[in-house]
Amino acid sequence: MAASQAVFDTHDANTATASMALAYMRRRSAVLEMAVCDPLLFVLLHSGLCVVFNTTGTVISKKVSYLNAGSHDVIRSILYNPCTTSILVISCHSDDSFVRLHCRAVPANPRLFADHGNYCTAGQSVLEAVAHPGFIEFHDSPCRALVLDAANGQYKVYDLSKPSYRVLYCLSADGITDIKLSRSYILLVKELQRKQWCRRHGQDATIALTVKPAGEFKQPESPEHDSWQQERNQQHQQQQLSQPQPKEDSSVCSSSLSINHICGRQSRRPPRQSVAPLEVLSAADGQVLVRHELPVELCHSGFQVLELFDEHLLIKQALQPIMIHNVLSLSLLGSNAHELLSQLSSFMHLQGHNMFLTVTGQILATWTFKAQMVARFAEHELWYPVDNQVDQLVCLSGDWLISYCKPRSSRAHLPAAGAAGAIAVSSVVTGKPLARIEAPDSGDPDVEGASVLGQAANNKTSCDTLLDTSHDKATRAALTDVTAVLYDEHMRVIYTGNRGGLVHKWSAG
């Protein structure tokens, strides 16, 4: 079993009291995200502080600096960019009332943080500041960023592979309801267009209704008049059916067919349909490659383009199975009504294996792009259902899947207060368990783990004492209330951050 070799405490009572202008930054906060560029470890807290540690040397539990540019800078997300060996920082500022998102690129150089003291003012502003409902998305594979400039109604795609961070191209946001960016393609989903139903010709097509003047369709003034009108309509229909019908254009339905058809009184009518206009663009230059019209049933709401993984398009409609299409030809590659697909919470792309990972409640599974299940990870039953936290609690690295999950001894659906979980490592391809970090089940581990964590959170016990008192107690404390997991491929170690703002480093030992 792996052993926790070091603990990093993100809370510095002396520094926080003296220099933090925003009150909520002075308190302990949960670990939100982590990034590593050896030897630097970046730990983003829920409060907006990002603490930088140096993982080499004799004293490894002391911070080097804050990644924040100042007390006004509240960081929302961080990402390591291997193309430029820098950390991309998304933050908002108190001087503009936190209404705009700013992006900054900071070189991951240990000397840089040592020279700038408590805050890191180095780096350059990249991309552009955007206000709500604008957003900034990073895509690791093509090293690109997608920015929505809502004020100007434009999507902008930036190149992150070079320090210049230049704009590759711009796209109009007019009429676009969703946009997906993959390694080779961009998918634009436009507003749905309704289709009518021609009852006479019995086919699904967009039709034009020639409506008579409103004076010819007066509302009945009494029940007797209404019954007389219905009888007259029935006679008129019988006369038309007894006569030979001339050939008509299938795209036009005459209003003389039935007054009830115009007034919407037919009780039997096929499901309303519409089409979702799709445009597929080249991710390299933004040129349109192909346009599609995808039929959509309107009898049930809930049409959603889930994701675009390379050339594979995942689509879901309410009460229907997930369908996987080729984005260029729109040909159906696979469909599956399995409950793990119909009720999924989130998923991740496994680029090197031509598969994708689904998170359904607390269950993890991998699938091919023909909608066939590859493996179900029984050892990775999550402690609690995750939606937008899947990137923090589930880590993919090459052939490995690492997640924070239930211990084997637990039968509870949700964790009790202070209960310790486990870190499971499995093969992505086969689902076979490879390693596991779990506290020994002896005595009352949940109570002991909560006690040790509480002492460390209140700064009553140093990190070194926490590791030396008892290996079992320290392991339980480290595996309690984990909020983020990170694997360092270069050093082959696992980092876990918890709700108390402590980060533990795990390696084989």
Give your account of this protein's structure.
A hairpin with a 5-residue loop joins strand 25 and strand 26. The chain has nine helices and 37 strands. Helix 7 (445-457) packs across helix 9 (471-478) and helix 8 (463-469) packs across helix 9 (471-478). It has 509 residues and is mainly beta. It is 15% helix and 42% strand. It is globular and about 90 Å long.
Total beta strands: 37
Radius of gyration: 30 Å
Give the mean pLDDT.
76
Q: Number of helical segments? A: 9
The separation of the N and C termini measures 7 Å
Q: What proportion of the residues is helical, as a percent range?
A: 10-25%
Instruction: State the shape.
Output: globular
Sheet of most strands: 5 strands, antiparallel
Structural class: mainly beta
Strand content: 35-45%
- Uncertain regions: pLDDT < 50 for 5+ in a row? 197-225, 246-270, 442-470
Compile the SSE list and pairings.
Elements (H helix, E strand, L loop, with lengths): L2 E7 L3 H7 L11 E7 L2 E6 L4 E5 L8 E4 L6 E9 L4 E8 L6 E8 L2 H6 L8 E8 L4 E4 L4 E6 L4 E6 L7 E6 L3 E6 L3 E6 L2 E3 L1 E2 L4 E2 L3 E3 L12 H20 L9 E3 L4 H5 L9 E10 L5 E10 L6 E6 L2 E5 L5 E5 L5 E5 L2 H4 L3 E5 L4 E6 L2 E6 L4 E4 L13 H4 E4 L2 E6 L16 E6 L5 E6 L6 H13 L5 H7 L1 H8 L3 E7 L4 E6 L3 E6 L2
Parallel strand pairs: 19-20
Antiparallel strand pairs: 1-37, 2-3, 3-4, 4-5, 6-7, 7-8, 8-9, 10-11, 11-12, 12-13, 14-15, 15-21, 16-21, 17-18, 21-22, 23-24, 24-25, 25-26, 27-28, 28-29, 29-30, 31-32, 32-33, 33-34, 35-36, 36-37
Helix pairs in contact: 7-9, 8-9
